[in-house]
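Saturday, quiet lab. Running sequence design on the structure tokens for the scaffold JK sent over.
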């Protein structure tokens, strides 16, 4: 690393799955007195408020794919972004450029590769994303969110290091709260989280599935269910009519607290979701979003379930009778849930942010002086 204050450029797509690990790394780099810049599209203005000391840099980028007109527009936007990114990197002379996937990261990472900057990719999912797949064979180092990553070429494995996916500090705090399996005659806390890509099917399936449970279990349930705004009233009414105590909202600001109380979760299988469940040490029934690129949520869910931490139900198989039976079995097996919670803890990489920062500093150290943008 040079004697001057180290400079880092992070490149990430504008969705939470890409931004959460970038945010965690930025916090570590700022704490180490680094000058940190985030190169992305225009959807991430909240990032600067979340991580003081990080400067946002908007780089043009276009999604490549779809029809001919969309592809042509995407290529033109990406070409413009490449010019912008080359100019930016020449000015900043970064010690390292770190990409987190998503099409907005591509121009900056391509520019960094062309200019000879030390580069690292972080892949959040158990399947290498398309943007990262385009770049993986050309970067200096690859950090992975899962111990095994599909679509990572054998030739690139030697440059890969498992770091895990960083999670929010509030989730890390849940790891210190012991898991409490259901006790006979006690309350049973169930959390159902879907986000924009899961709340509709959970709104349709979960309330009648819960209403079909035995009366004693229904009375013991305390449910927190996320639903779309237009579905909240319907879901709340169905749960109430089923004799189930529930809180229904389109967004919970206290998810860490709800996970801390939860004995079981039902949710999608995005990389951040799986990482948070693991660090919190909470078992889950995972219903992967079937339209995720390259079906990466199914790969994420299978990795979690194979460790013994949860169970996978493909959306095509999800039904009211199936979910009701699964809940009756799981919630009636306190020992099995406790074992799954322990497995989740073992699956977790609670120090993922530290591991990722260490990989970046190691990259800079190996590059040595003079390895900045030409």
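Result came back. Writing it out in full:
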């Amino acid at each position: 690393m040079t004697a001057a204050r180290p400079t880092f450029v992070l490149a990430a797509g504008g969705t939470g799955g890409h931004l959460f690990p970038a945010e965690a790394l930025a916090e570590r780099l700022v704490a180490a007195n680094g000058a940190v810049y985030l190169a992305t599209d225009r959807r991430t203005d909240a990032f600067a408020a979340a991580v003081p000391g990080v400067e946002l840099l908007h780089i043009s980028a276009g999604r490549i794919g779809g029809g001919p007109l969309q592809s042509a527009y995407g290529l033109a936007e990406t070409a413009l972004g490449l010019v912008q990114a080359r100019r930016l990197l020449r000015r900043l002379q970064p010690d390292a450029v770190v990409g987190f996937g998503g099409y907005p990261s591509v121009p900056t990472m391509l520019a960094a590769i062309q200019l000879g900057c030390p580069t690292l990719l972080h892949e959040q999912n158990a399947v290498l994303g398309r943007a990262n797949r385009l770049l993986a064979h050309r970067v200096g180092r690859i950090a992975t969110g899962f111990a095994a990553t599909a679509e990572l070429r054998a030739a690139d494995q030697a440059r890969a290091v498992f770091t895990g996916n960083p999670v929010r500090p509030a989730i890390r705090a849940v790891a210190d709260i012991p898991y409490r399996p259901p006790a006979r005659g006690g309350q049973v806390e169930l959390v159902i989280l879907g986000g924009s890509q899961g709340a509709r099917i959970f709104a349709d399936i979960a309330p009648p599935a819960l209403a079909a449970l035995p009366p004693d279990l229904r009375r013991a349930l305390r449910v927190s269910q996320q639903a779309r705004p237009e579905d909240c009233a319907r879901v709340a009414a169905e749960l109430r009519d089923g004799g189930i105590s529930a809180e229904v909202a389109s967004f919970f600001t206290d998810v860490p607290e709800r996970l801390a109380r939860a004995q079981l979760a039902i949710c999608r299988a995005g990389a951040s979701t799986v990482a948070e469940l693991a660090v919190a040490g909470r078992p889950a029934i995972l219903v992967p979003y079937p339209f995720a690129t390259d079906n990466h949520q199914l790969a994420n869910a299978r990795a979690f379930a194979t460790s013994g931490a949860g169970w996978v139900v493909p959306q095509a198989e999800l039904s009211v009778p199936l979910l009701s039976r699964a809940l009756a079995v799981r919630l009636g097996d306190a020992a099995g849930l406790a074992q799954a919670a322990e497995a989740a803890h073992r699956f977790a990489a609670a120090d993922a942010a530290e591991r990722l920062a260490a990989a970046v500093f190691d990259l800079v150290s190996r590059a040595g002086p003079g390895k900045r943008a030409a």
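Notes for JK: The chain has a mean pLDDT of 92. The radius of gyration is 22 Å. Ask whether to fix the surface positions before the next round.
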